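Problem 12. The chain below contains 149 residues. Write out its predicted structure in C-alpha cell notation.
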Amino acid sequence: MAKIEEIVGLMTEEIAEFRTSVEKLAEINKKLSQMKVKLDLDDVKNTLTKNLEEQNKKQERCLCHLQEVVTKTVDSQEQPRWMIISKLSLALLSLLFVSYSIYKISSIPDIEKAAYDKGQEQVLTHVKKFLSENKDASHIYNEWLTKSN
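Solution.
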C-alpha cells in the first residue's frame, strides 16, 4: 500500500506541476496576444526598390545595345543598287567571256584542218606549176615515181 501512496503522491505532484505549467503558458499566451509586434520592413523595401531600379537600368542598357546590334546587322546586309548592278554585270561579262573562249577552243581543230587543207592545196599547185614549167624536173620526178612504186 505504501507504494500506491507513493505513486499517488508522485502523481499529485506531477499534476500540480502540470497545472502550474499550464497556468504559466496561459499567462504567456495572454501577454503575447496583447503584445503588438510591429515589423519594420523599411530597410527591406528600400533594398528591393534600389535593386529593382538597378535592374531596370541594366535592362534598358541591354535593350539599347541589342537595338544597336540589330541596326548594324540590318545595315550590313544592305548593299547599294549600283554595287548589285556592278556585280551582276561583272558576272554576266565573265560568263560571256568563258562561253566565247570555250567556243573558240572547240573550233580550233576545224580551223587547223582548213589551214592544213589550204596549205596542202597550195603546195600541190606550186609543185604542179613547177613541174609543168620545168620539163627536166618533171622527167626526173616521173622516173623517181616509177622506181619507188
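Discussion. The chain has a mean pLDDT of 89. Students who got a different answer should revisit the alignment rule from Section 12.3.
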